[in-house]
Amino acid sequence: MRANIWTRTLVSVGAVVGLAAGSLATAGTSFAASDAKPAVRAEVGVLAVNNLGLSTTEARYVQCWIQDYWGYTGALDGQLGTNSWKALQRWLKAHWGYTDSIDGIVGPNTIKALQRDLKAHHGYTGAIDGIAGSGTKAAFKDFAADSRPYC
Length: 151
What we know:
Structural class: mainly alpha
């Protein structure tokens, strides 16, 4: 029986020593690797496409309109990306009080200017708050429907 206890003790001590050695080896490796540059860079950016609740068909109607009037030269693919929003910002700057740069980013000032048009012509009844909530999205669908004849 005593031999059995000593065997278990030696096996347990061996396992602990092995784990400790492995941990030290890993620590040394991780320390050495800390100066290395990551293989993949994670960056957070602006969404490339923002249809504000429109289907691709509805967004395509908007693209047809901005192609006819606001210098949009991209694909009529129903994806309101940076170039679509740049064209919309040119229109918003000309008529609806947009004062930021023409950068294609759908930020609060872009939404506020859009809300001014939607309030005047498309049944939007909410605040001019720069938040694209359900009321803004519903009115933008009406805007898209009015853009349909341009396709």
